[in-house]
Specification:
This protein has 182 residues and is of the alpha/beta class. The chain contains six helices and eight strands; from the N terminus they run ααβββαββαβαβαβ. α5 links the parallel β6 and β7.
Length: 182
């Protein structure tokens, strides 16, 4: 399979996983009328102190407010077969040679940006990486604390940890951004 096809398949799987997570937020066994009677609270993902009884935008950053989950619903989700998520928990290797689990170690409970790359790419990958470098500079000290970037190689045969480390150094990436291979 060509690399572009592999990338499209992986992007499709990621989009499908996101749709599953969104759909899993809909409570089962609760009628529309019951949902309307409950008091719903919304909060900003970036500014949790910003709360509202109605949806809308955060006055600080403009992000869409999200419904705050109820404690009993989140604990029930954690007991599910998927561990509260629809993301795989595959083992990956960082640019430093450390083994990590995709869900448990990288994305669970974090705000993340995922980028699919291969280091021999000549077109989109360098442009995407350069744009993320610009965004990383704008985020400043929030990187690695509030927000994490992950660049995952779709060419693990070529993109060894050493190759990924050199690629990261080439783009002057800072803390909070990890390059990964399978």
């Amino acid at each position: 399979m060509k690399r572009t096809n592999v990338k499209l398949v992986l992007l499709g799987l990621l989009a499908f996983s996101i749709a599953l997570v969104i759909n899993s937020q809909v409570p089962t066994g609760v009628s529309f009328a019951q949902q309307q009677q409950e008091v719903v609270e919304y909060s900003c993902p970036m500014h949790p102190e910003v709360k509202s009884k109605t949806g809308g935008s955060c006055p600080k950053c403009g992000m869409t407010l999200r419904q705050v989950s109820k404690p009993d619903a989140s604990s029930a989700k954690e007991d599910s077969e998927w561990g509260g998520t629809h993301f795989p928990n595959v083992e990956l290797i960082t640019q430093d040679g450390k083994k990590v689990r995709f869900y448990d170690d990288l994305i669970k409970g974090k705000v993340v940006a995922l980028e699919l790359i291969y280091t021999t790419c000549k077109y989109n990958c360098p442009l995407e990486t350069a744009r993320l470098v610009q965004l990383q500079k704008l985020l400043g000290d929030r990187m690695g604390k509030d927000i994490f970037f992950y660049s995952i190689s779709i060419d693990p045969e070529h993109d060894t940890p050493e190759v990924l480390k050199a690629y990261a150094e080439k783009y002057h990436v800072g803390p909070g951004w990890t390059f990964l291979t399978g």
